[in-house]
Amino acid sequence: GQHAPRASLMAVHDSTLIALWNAMQLDVGIVFPTYAALTAIELYQHNTTKEWVVEVQVDHSPVHFRNHKHAIRAPFAHVEAIVHAFLKKEKATKKRSVEEDGDVEKEGAEGAAVKKAKVADQGSQNE
Q1: Helices assigned H by DSSP within 7-75
Q2: Residue-wise over 31-40: b if at least 16 C-beta within 10 A, else e?
Q3: Where is this region: Disordered (predicted)?
Q4: Out of 7, 20, 52, 56, which could bridge 76 as a Cys pair, Cβ 3.0 to 4.6 Å?
């Protein structure tokens, strides 16, 4: 049967839109979102193959994915691959950060004291 379109509206900052466009690897060019800019992510299912596809529009204009320029609609699997790569990179970054924090602890109390002193010195210079 036919389903009525569903909509979700959210208001976000322009920098959040830019981050979303980059994370989704959208080919929007070098642009800054205007006030009340619209980014629509639409999900469609093919009638016969039942394959899910995604279409993204920025201010009512269709936008290609960077590695999928041959068609406006990209298979959902393409978007899943982008998300998995993004999350994998995020996880690796967090892991490195935790490992670096562990290195500070390995330096011992002296190393930590020196780092705290440097921060305190910088704070007093700004006053």
Answers
A1: 14-23
A2: eebeeeeebe
A3: 92-127
A4: 52
Domain, as residue range, for 33: 14-92
Residues 17, 90, 63, 47: what is their CA dihedral angle, to the nearest 10 degrees? -120
CA 109 – CA 46 distance, rounded (Å): 62
- Structural domain includes residue 125: no
Query: In terms of residues, how long is the chain?
Result: 127
H/E segment holding residue 87: helix 76-106
Residue 20 lies in a domain: yes
User: pLDDT class for 2, splitting at 50, 70, 90?
Assistant: low
Distances (CA, A) of 31 to 18, 22, 44, 53: 9, 12, 27, 25
pTM of the model: 0.62
User: Which of 46-55, 77-86, 117-126 shows the lowest per-residue confidence on average (mean pLDDT)?
Assistant: 117-126
Q: Kind of pairing, strands 39-45 and 61-63?
A: unpaired
